Amino acid sequence: MTAPRPLSSLLSAAGVVPAAPVATDPLVAGVSIDSRTVRPGDLFFALHGAREEGARFAPEAVGKGAAAVVADVEAPESGFRPAWVRVPDARLAMGLVAREWFGRPDTSLTLVGVTGTKGKTTVTYLVEAIAAAAGLSTGRIGTVGYAFAGREAALARTTPEATDLYALLAAMRDAAVSIVAMEVSSHALSLHRVEGARFPVATFLNLGHDHLEFHGGAEAYFEAKASLFDRLEPGDVAVLPADDPLGDVLRGRTRARVVRFGRRPGAEVRVVEERSGLEGSWVRLATPAGTVEVATPLLGRFNVDNIAAAAGCAIALDLQLAAIRSGIGGLRTVPGRLESVDAGQPFAVLVDYAHTEESLAAVLDAVRPLTAGLLLVVFGCGGDRDHAKRPGMGRVAALRADRLVLTSDNPRSEDPKAILREIEEGVRSVTGAPGRYRVVEDRRAAIVEALSAARPGDAVVIAGKGHETTQTTAGRVEPFDDRAVAREALAGRGFHAGA
Known about the structure:
Layout lengths: L4 E2 H8 L12 E2 L1 E3 L9 E4 L12 H6 L4 E4 L11 E4 L3 H12 L8 E6 L4 H14 L4 E4 L4 E3 L2 E3 L8 H13 L4 E5 L2 H5 L10 E4 L7 H4 L2 H13 L6 E5 L3 H9 L3 E6 L6 E9 L2 E8 L2 E7 L4 H16 L4 H10 L8 E2 L7 E5 L4 H11 L7 E5 L9 H12 L2 E4 L9 H13 L8 E3 L3 H11 L5 E5 L6 E4 L2 E4 L2 H11 L7
Parallel strand pairs: 3-4, 4-5, 5-6, 7-11, 7-12, 8-11, 12-13, 13-14, 14-15, 19-23, 20-21, 20-23, 21-22
Antiparallel strand pairs: 1-2, 8-9, 9-10, 15-16, 16-17, 18-19, 24-25
Helix pairs in contact: 1-3, 3-5, 4-10, 4-11, 12-13, 13-14, 15-16
């Protein structure tokens, strides 16, 4: 447990300079961003939210014993007590102070940051598996949750808020973790959740059409991800895609040593040969340490890209080829990433997190050539998110799948029917598609319908939710797991795992 510290000492050590003199110098006993859970002595960060202004919760935090408040606005009233610390950017200050409060745990760990629109989760699982195969104590942080020292739990965000992130990294440090494979989202970079953290290794995977409602455009979205590489130092390593022009852009603006991965000649980690089937993939990689062949249950060309990126991270970490081979080969599945649901049925059922045009196209392109029969896809689009991608997702699905079932996927506060109409615009723009799709708003019924229609040799892809275990509709959060629903539907057809 961290010992209480004077507010002035904590701010100074974190490099945070108040915009105005602070009237008092109380002892700080903790850090918090949630007024509902503030404990006596906490330093409360009043942040701008999507719907609420954090400063309005300051009185509640103070009522629960907060020692001081950090905000980028004036105190709500003159003579406000206790201490009010006004700063130019409360989120930036929070990242720096949280890091300092928890003893700068990143300096005791080797953080491998993974950013990109798609593939982050799979690459963190692969890096974790390779490091574990090398005999190292590992941690993982990302969309599915965190894992270290036999502990595993879900997270509310891909990259937690700074107060939670540094607390988690401190727990990993105290558990003698060596390497942490961590998803670093564009939101996290824009909102300073990883402020101050050192990443000796960072990799960029790709840039797709996602989160534009938050960033305001594709250029700002890329700049958010690029900021991870701007901060790297000469002794760090940037693992970048050789086949993507954005890899060259990042190569030109980072101070770190660069390791490129991909299929292009000159890539330090190069895909020399690859084969893929519904049972998995086989890849031969040429690396600075020699050639390595890996066999994995992960399937599809995009997973070969993920494998090459993870191998690039391993090379940057000076891990042995044997660890790359056994680590990748030993990873049986990544939750909700082309995860097979096998109940003995004579057709493939694959659940995937694909929720953008690019990721849905990549998944269907991976499964299409491996399917002897028809390719069926069940998918929808999330509410309160980027509207522009909805027709595009409808179009890419209609161009690739034989049959489509359009359904709900976390409509949140939006009308599910309105979302489906936007997806339909894209579907109907494809010649011949109107006769190949159905709209079934209820997601459970949609999955049942698709699996009831599947015949031997077909493949059914259920896309959008992946590892998620809830569905959010009109403010209600209810249990829902595509994998569990698929198993129930298959059981309804008489198929049972192990039968």
